[in-house]
Amino acid sequence: MKQRVVITGLGVVAPNGVGLTDFTKALKNGTSGIRFHQDLKDLKFSCQIGGIPQITDDLKSKYFTDLQLRGFNSSGILYGCIAGMDAWKDAGFDLNPNSELDYDTGLIFGTGTSGVEKFREAIHKLDEGNVRRLGSTVVLQTMASGISAYLGGMLGFGNQVTTNSSACTTGTEALLMGYERIKYGKAKRMLVGSCSDHGPYIWGGFDAMRVMTYKHNDSPTEGSQPMSASASGFVPGSGAGALVLESLESALERGATIYAEVLGGEINSGGQRQGGTLTAPNPEAVQRCIKNALHNSGIDSSEIEVINGHLTATSKDTLEIENWTKALQRQGKNFPFINSTKSLVGHCLAAAGAIECVASIIQLKEQFIAPNVNCEDLHSGIEELVSPEKIPHKKIDLEFDTIAKASFGFGDVNACVLFKRFIA
Amino acid sequence: MNKEELIAKLKTIIAPYIQDEKAFKNLSEDTDFVKDLKINSANLVDIILDIEDEFNIRLENEDMEKMLDVKSAMSIVTSKLAD
After folding, report:
1. Which residues does the UniProt record annotate as the domain Carrier (chain B) (predicted)?
2. Which of these, A83, A84, A235, B59, is most buried using a 10 Å CB contact count?
């Protein structure tokens, strides 16, 4: 029997809010988490602004032991562990380092690359002929699955514990992989999410590709402009999002708070054919991904009321909107509301999918649509497809049941998921 | 440096890594790093590096293999300091 899957816990570490309460407030108020960073300027970056979650040493010591923090230099793992532990606690579980091993719970927590600053430290020592001085912490912080290794041990999970990686699709893919594991009865609960490091060593390659904006170094909060005519590239971000997925049966049995139901979704690739490349999407595959997500969720395109898009603030935004209109066969006034969380947090890369899934669930649970900031000058190509009122600049309170979330990534990979409000 | 001073210094170095407070309190020359103090074996290399820094000595792989308890650590450090 296929299990229904619901969301029973959320955790988030975002540039504009650490923890559910602050992040929700920031979403409602349209608070930007984008700031100027002197180190980027010193290193001669074109784009000198970015989104970095504000984590104090005090907060760190609430989640990590002194020993764990010794020689610790992996911001992605830091964000991922905080978000993951918060989500687990939010789902009603204790954070007990000596908890009984839980074979019914697993974890799929993705990242793009892990511990780049730690890796840099190691490379310097190694090149000086000092490999023997690296210590014990390099491997665990720089292996891709560092985040799932840390979290799995902190929470004592005994089901599948792994890390996925699919560029900016990573978080949404992790969610769908965890969803399937529960749906097919392989696990009762899956903690899913993704995280990304911050800083020059992770962002530098994108700066070199000239895909980040260099026009807003003096006005950071105005830098991230998805869907705007003046969009000039994305603003890099970082952080983590985490969600506890659970079989409906288990959630009801525990009397857990249910945020929403995961109706289903789809993951595919455009194969870098038909216009798709390493960096650009194959439109047909994107549309197919959305259509199959609807089909797998057993709903009609007319039922989608809100979309949380991928929408990064590059020239590809218009193409994404066009793909949505074609996949849903809806345009103009008939198009759902759509927003991009990236206008507030930047493009959090591997963490984007998870942070934005959390944002989608918060909006669904609290019945509002977060504002799209910095797109007062809507791109004309988008305006031809969608009525401007469907792209709100201010928060809208709205009763709605269904939200679609999609993420797309380098390598021509796509993921789309449908969430539905759960009313017991 | 006498024995007590050496033990005191080693104690400060290993303090961050121990997982058994009681065994640490009762630390003696016979205390085993992994069996008694429950130190994660991966952390033994970090302790070696910290010892190198503290005493300004260099420990080789062979020294490392022998350094499993307080007594062996003391004897290796003492002999390196005498070199």
Report:
1. 1-81
2. A83
Answer whether A66 sits within 8 Å of B43, measured CB to CB: no
Residue B45's CATH number: 1.10.1200.10
Subunit contact B16:A67, Cβ cutoff 8 A? yes
| In a domain? residue B83 | no
Partners of A190 in the β-ladder: A106, A245
| DSSP 8-state class, residue A313 | S
Given a contact cutoff of 8 angstroms between Cβ atoms, the answer to whether A311 and A406 are in contact is no
| Count of alpha carbons within 13 angstroms of residue B34, beta-carbon side | 10
Q: Could you read off the pLDDT of A365-395 as tens digits, one per residue?
A: 999 999 999 999 999 999 999 999 999 999 9
Calpha distance A141→A144 (Å, rounded): 8
For A265, what's the count of Cα atoms within 13 Å in the CB-facing half-sphere?
30
ipTM confidence score: 0.89
Looking at the structure of chain B, the number of domains it has is 1
The per-residue pLDDT for A97 is 87
Mutating which of B19, B34, B43, B57 best tests the A interface, going by the most A Cβ atoms within 10 A? B43
Residue B17, domain member (yes or no): yes
Radius of gyration of chain B (CA): 12
Residue B49: inside a domain: yes
Spacing of C-alpha A9 from chain mean position: 15
